[in-house]
């Protein structure tokens, strides 16, 4: 018991020291480790397996929406970055630059891609000739680099993994519609695969992607009430098609520039999962992306037939497509319970001599519901049902929590009180940059997205007429 | 007809200008394009889909063999590279170096990984403590960079995609056995997924991986009789564990260095497929990795019921897990036949009013067998059977070809005649570097792998006793 207690005590208290809790959890559950170069992380197998599940789920959705995967070069000539003025201004300060290769100094320095609009735009400029070539829809799974001084695994690292989708359409309407559609794909994924409620909407000029006409974001509420930008889609207008000569001959014979859009999510989503669902015992992983959905812990493992029954159960569940692990190590059941709870496995099955006699298994849900008994003869169906219930409960719980922590503010003081209390704050905004900056200065909060339901009457800063209702929050 | 002829004439003749044939095929089938930076390639959707299939097949095999995926940083401090003397000597001349990032000059230059032994070794040194932590088996899917002056898409590019597996064992025997085992996994994959016969064996000191104790390779014979190194496994002994302090406390309480091994295959495999199976009409893709396994071409598409029947057939095949495409474009059937033949689709199905009346479909195999009729009522089973036959035939054809082009040589003149004739040449070798270099100088051929059946009596260069029988060939 002393040993078990010690095990749990290794994690800082989630309520009193959330940043340390996060660091403890990501390191101790072996999701990630710090890399040797400052700002870098190593994604360990338990963390990478979550990413693989995220990739598989997204990849299927992208393909359903007409996307094909491709791969573009890592290194981008510096001169490409400068072709779109806002873009280079936004990204130049954080790029890593290759100046030497093959033992020689390069004629032109090359950036390690921070994002690929410029190089993909260059290739699209070469490939697109006619309206028959449109739309173009491609996606890339890749590593990107944005130099950082601080390291927060998954949240802020100089290199991270992501997907970036890039499309070209003949008309602005189509490109805008796609920008909205992929935002809805993200939102649906967040709900059904991460059990994570999000708020989606357009971002302000200040917060938009460098080079975009409009950026839309999905924001999720973390345990401490801060917001995590979890995915963005960008309507790029003709900014990149003009910079990279993405032109086509339309049906009417005229040469026109295409309208482009892009969208991306990254390994940040793993951080979002951790901070949305985690509790005082550690991770709580959503069943659709959990590397291990079910762990079987034998009780009185040395008693005749127990291990055999556990192995048979494991095989049956695995055959049914459930990601299952049998923990037949030497550790005590109590130790195992703590370990797998910390690792966030959604469902623990206990199986001992008494259960075998009664022909059932004990099911303990990580999300806190009472233990239940499921007949061994209906193991796979029972587990599937419970995992679906866990998913639903995790989503509803997070949604209720988020909704209960959205408050309205009429003044900067109210806004400050709101974010201090760990809330998202809905407030009116006149649309001017100075008023947005003032919110940051006064409350250390930023505009996250516009509320599509615009109800605020006056700007929270200046009191003039509100043009938008904005969700403000402190953010990662 | 003129149009169709022109289409095929766009590809150079495979027999008289194989290098141009290769370039034509990879570009015109849209597998790949040249990137804007010299030495780089863009893998287009049709090429990337092959890589996705290769990844999926390998990934399942690696996991069956106990491997977990992880992700390690792209940038490696230059000082890590120098910890293993042979390693840095081998790779330093071809690394790309990041010297500036985040607007500042870096204190230490960082290499873009050419391979990850050094950074993964550093992390293993941190993670491995006890014999209980062993074996460690991890794999990474990643991009790597080795600076090149010339570009041959898939074969020789400064950046390419690959997998690299890295393991640590308590004993030399286990690490050596794993090196052999993963070579057999590669060989089985080559046969069953790429329909590609290979020759496997140990490499000479000259040809081994920089830092390895022993390297094993699998070599495949291309259309022109040259060899393509298609995968390698390396027994690294304690070279890297000593350099990176991968130590463990053994059962007997003693501190010992681990024994490591690594293995990798890359997007080169796509080049191997193209040059093993391609013919005068273009690509011939192996069914297990072909992006499109079956293309349906409607005949007299405007006749009532034809397109509907084609769509129904397509849906039925797709539901059966077959990768199928219906070409309902405006092009003529003849044009479509040529296009999909050039793109290497293993099976074409033709379906017209007469076929519908008779209740069958016409099946035309890309590998050249006669057209056959398959009842529409057994479409999925029939297609599966034909695809299996295509795979087997492609493998047997390539195997017979390779075997007919392995010759023995007793002298350098014979060896030269052998490689000039587009053969692999089996010859004796005394084991000394000078004799190996002499072969290169005299015949522009290199030692590929040792023949496990050592039958040669004398060295092909010096005439002294042969220590190994070696496969020599010109190589990509």
Task: Furnish the topology, listing elements before pairings.
2 copies of one chain form a homodimer.
Chain A: H1 2-9, H2 18-28, E1 32-34, E2 41-43, H3 45-64, E3 68-69, E4 75-77, H4 78-81, H5 85-91, E5 96-101, E6 104-112, H6 117-127, E7 136-145, E8 159-169, H7 172-194, E9 199-202, E10 214-221, E11 227-237, H8 239-243, E12 247-249, E13 255-257, E14 259-266, H9 268-277, E15 294-298, H10 306-319, E16 324-326, H11 333-342, E17 347-351, H12 353-358, E18 360-365, E19 372-375, H13 379-404, E20 406-409, H14 412-420, E21 424-429, H15 433-443, E22 446-450, E23 468-473
Parallel strand pairs in A: 3-7, 15-16, 15-17, 20-21
Antiparallel strand pairs in A: 1-2, 4-6, 5-6, 7-8, 8-14, 9-10, 10-11, 11-14, 12-13, 17-18, 18-19, 21-23, 22-23
Helix pairs in contact in A: 1-11
Written account of the structure:
Two copies of one chain form a homodimer. The first copy, chain A, is an alpha+beta fold and 476 residues long. Helix content of chain A is 37%, strand content 27%. The first copy, chain A, has 15 helices and 23 strands. A seven-stranded mixed beta sheet of chain A has the order 3-7-8-14-11-10-9, with helices on both faces. In chain A, strand 20, helix 14 and strand 21 (424-429) form a beta-alpha-beta unit. Chain A starts with a helix and ends with a strand. The model of chain A is unreliable at 1-6 (pLDDT under 50).
